[in-house]
Amino acid sequence: VQLKDGKLALVRLFALAGCLVYVLGSLFMSHKYAKFVSPTGQVAIEYASPANASFSNNHSYCNDAKNGGAYPPGAVFDCQVWDPLQFVYANAPSSTFLTTRVNVDRQRKVNCTPSCADVWISTGNTSNFYVSQVEDYSIKITTTFQAQKDTVSASSDISNMTYYLQGKLVDQDGKTLKTFGNEQSDEFSLNTLLQAAGLNDINDISDWTYNQDNYTYRTLGALLVVTVELNNRDGGLLGDPTYVYSVSRVPHKKYLVKEVYPEPVFNATERVVYDRYGIQVVFTVIGDIGYFDFPTLLLTLVGASALLSVSTIVVEFFMLRVLRNKNQYRDCKYDIVSISDRSYGAMP
What we know:
Layout (H helix, E strand, L loop, with lengths): L5 H24 L4 E4 L2 E9 L29 E3 L3 H4 L7 E15 L10 E12 L6 E10 L10 E4 L4 E5 L5 E5 L5 E4 H7 L20 H4 L1 E13 L2 E13 L6 E6 L8 E23 L1 H15 L1 H13 L3 H8 L15
Parallel strand pairs: 3-5, 8-12, 11-14
Antiparallel strand pairs: 1-14, 2-6, 4-5, 4-14, 6-7, 6-10, 8-9, 11-12, 13-14
């Protein structure tokens, strides 16, 4: 039965338009035509001296400067000027450690005949010093990543590096602190990372659980986790990936690593143990990279065709329940017959 009615035509038009807008919105804004995969990556780390650098030991945390109460008396030590080859320890892909303070303990080996409580004991010749101006050095990083498509051919995998892409560093509130691009390594100072983690600078009081003397992060160290989040959801279309650096600090924790010099040997009788306090920075790569996938698009279109049938249900609801001529519409739609009026003969 076809009913020619302007009101019903208008209802059907609005229903179809609503379904079409929903389908297109899901298709493009939610990228229902694409399949997404998680990237894996590695971060290469380098260091650079600050522009117009001028290094000295004249700082509030150094013994040879006027302290003025800026640092607790028990945390004011001598300072030494080190370069990255000295203050960077155990540097590895996607991880780096920047030494801010060193406690040096010279030890000798004990003759454990017949027995001894400790194999090595301190000679009493110890020292403690800060590494001057570590926070002013720039950290330069480049992330190389790959996202494997669900396909047999490995040549179709998505691979790139942040050197060629656009990115930014954000703080705890999502505010942009720095933007990156222009085919160069991303560069920021340690203090900038600490600010992104919610601190003012490296001289803030540490929240280490047992920090009863108000020592700073320069004195006790900290652990930072830098997340590199990649995605290519640029509006309704898939574009080149972009990335965002976000920084979190592991709370209530100090950080130190031990270094022994010389390296342990069989017949060594003396050694020096360096307790390196500092900032451990660990990078992790997350996100999702999308690519066009025809089976995904086909499933979306099949679901959309079923959704368009909703417009028919909406029109029938208004036709039979709402509009003024609903009784006439019902008479036209249904042909009511009584089974009792019919006679059925025996089957031959």
